[in-house]
Structure formats: structure tokens, C-alpha cells
Amino acid sequence: MEIRPTTDQDLKVFVDTLHAAFGRFPETPTDGGGVWWSALETDRNLIAVTADGRPVGTASSYSFELTLPGEVLAPAAGVSAVGVLPSHRRQGVLSAMMRHQLAELRARGEFLSVLLASEALIYRRFGYGPATYTQRLTVQRHRASFARPRARGTADAPATGSIELLRRAECGEILEEVYDRYRRAQPGALSRPHRWWASGAGQPPISPAPRYVAVHRAADGVPDGYASYSLGESETLTVDEVIATDDAVFTALARFALEHDLATQVVFKHFPPDHPLCWQLADLRAGQVSNNMDWLWVRLLDVPRALTARGWFTDGELVLDVDDQFLGEHGRYLLTVRDSKADCVPTDREPDLSLDVSDLGSVYLGGTAPSTLVRAGHIKAHRPGAAALADALFRADRSPHCLHWF
């Protein structure tokens, strides 16, 4: 078997092979784009072929920026389009592609890799750990009244500004600009490169699928938030995503959706797990949470570089014993945080925590507490207080959340 990069001439073979791996057929492109593979970066695609030239597997990655705690923007490879034909599964094809890809990403100088896992059992063995989470919130409109607004300046106070209703085709530049401002301040968020918006590659509101967009404008007229939505035949108003630069704008957009005529219920597809909206409703039980699941998985390709890249909010010192079984690597590192900056160097000191690189990926953005993984038996704490110190060190300035599908 050979694993090689693709060329422009390989695109159809690559797309057909990936769809066959999932038992599907490629959808028909719409006018002006709208298919996810229009955002593929040819030089980052890999295809596995047998000795007689038959394609049996695919893997790809995108060039993204990932927002780390402390509003740090770091390059990250977004792994996607991974598939192996049913006829060649459990024969080492996937492991070979993942090992080849990780080596290639390191050769590019990248120190972080992220993905969305189609199955939760697959990617931990390759060193990835779930790092952000999302959920669905459903609110029945007859129970959606808000509590009386409090003093201005609190999250549930009325936002100043206005909301303008537009069609998706009318506001592409606005969506792109507002999302970019949002993702730069939100830990766990990924960039959406211009080529994604231009080609309509992805899920709404990136794709050209018909959507209404409620655009929130600040008092000076500058757009600072939006909600993309559609109203289905079942009288369910489905909100693809709410993007807002602060809580008051988010509340204004949520209120707009919840007060929409002709809808019996409103579904927020990607709702941040710790968002205060339910507390802003008069009926605390009005919002029903479902589909609570992992979203962005993170893998560290260079532990010292990754740990020194993010922002930190508590001073302290930890010795981390990190095992990378998939790549056959092991390292012990002294992490020292002073004045929001970290230093991470190899050490022979006794460890405070022993963990797999996948568990380090889970705690990296601050969305999973190290003590939770200690209690689950994933991380071993070697001294009292080590888990509590790790919780304090790895916490983020705000909970990480990722909306981008890739």
C-alpha cells in the first residue's frame, strides 16, 4: 500500500472514495458552489492506494487558526475527510494514514491538530481528546417569556442597537466579518477562511442554503451579531448558530427567535453548555437540553510548544509525565507559569501527574477539568493537591466552544 498526496486531477477519485467509505453518493453541486469539498486544500489531501493502484482510503486537513485561552491565535490542522473502504477496514489502513498524516503535519511545523469525531471510539487511540462540547436547546414558545430585565450592564439587560432581517444571499460579507471578530475572542473557536464563505463550503450559514439571518447592529450601526435560522413545516424554528460579541447581543438575538410568530418551538442547534439563557427565562424549565456531546477534539504534536502558546491565569508549577502510545513517544515536562506566561522544559523530577497525550488534549483548552479525568482513572495524580493545582492552571478565561463544522 502507498499513501501519497493528491493532485488536482485526483479530486474526483478522492471524493468518490471518501463517499464510498461512508456508503454515500456525492450530492449534486448547486449553482455557485455549496459542496463541502470545494474547501479542500489539495496539497493537504492524502490517498491510500493498493499495489495495483486502487484507492482504498482518504484523509485530509485544513489550514485553520484555533483560538486558545487568553485570546491567542494558533495555527491548527483541521483533520477531516478520513475514510477507509469497507473492504479494507481492520487491515491497518487507517492507522497507517494517521501516522503518515501526523508526521506530515510535524514536518510543516504545526504543533496542534483538531478534528470532529464521527465516532467517539476511533480517535483517542491516535492521541486526540475531546476538548469542547455542545448541546441542543429546545424551547416551547408558549413557555419562552423572559424574566423582567434587570439593571443595564447585566447579561439579561436589553441590548442597545437594532435587529435587521436579511436573506442569506444578501449578507455574506457581514456574516464573515462578524464571525471573524467573534472567533478571535472565543476559546475553542476555529477560523473560517474566506474560501469557505466564497465557495459555500460547509453547513449553514456558510453554505448557500436558503436561510433568514437576523443581524444585530450596535447603536453606531456596526454589525456585532447574527442568528441564522429557518422555519420548518412542523412549525419548528431551527437556529443554525447564534454569533454574538457579548451576552447582551446573544440575548437580543435569542429573544428575536423566541418571539417569532408561527413557530411553536425554537431549536438552538449549537448551544454553549454554560450559557445563561435558561436563567433569563421566567420558567427555568422552559429550555430542554438534548444532544449533549463532544465537538472539537485536540491533539498536541509538540507538547512544550503547545503549552507555552496558550494564555494562563494562575501561577504555579507542575511536572507532567506524558505518554504518546500511538507515536511511541514519552516525555516528562516541567510546566512553570508566571505572570500569565508558561515555560515548559524536559525534566527528571518526579511527576505530579501522569497522563496520555489524548488527555492532555482534553484539558488543553480548559473545557475539561484535569480532576475529572483523575476521578475517571485517565490521569494519575502522584501527590495530594496536584489535581486541584492542575484545575486552577488549565482553566480558561471563558469556557471553550466551537461551532465550525469541517
Automatic annotation (TrEMBL):
SUPFAM superfamilies: Acyl-CoA N-acyltransferases (Nat) (SSF55729), SCP-like (SSF55718). Acetyl-CoA binds at residues 82-84, 90-95, 118-119. Residues 1-193 form the N-acetyltransferase domain. It holds the Pfam family Acetyltransf_9. The keyword Transferase applies. Keywords: Acyltransferase, Transferase. It comes from the Bacteria. InterPro entries: Acetyltransf_17 (IPR041380), Acetyltransferase_Eis (IPR051554), Acyl_CoA_acyltransferase (IPR016181), Eis_dom (IPR025559), GNAT_dom (IPR000182), NAcTrfase_Eis (IPR022902), SCP2_sterol-bd_dom_sf (IPR036527). The active site is at residues 123, 406. CDD domains: NAT_SF. The keyword Cell membrane does not apply. NCBIfam families: PRK01346.1-4. Belongs to the acetyltransferase Eis family. PANTHER family: N-ACETYLTRANSFERASE EIS. Homohexamer; trimer of dimers. This is GNAT family N-acetyltransferase. It comes from Allokutzneria oryzae. The lineage of its organism: Bacteria, Bacillati, Actinomycetota, Actinomycetes, Pseudonocardiales.
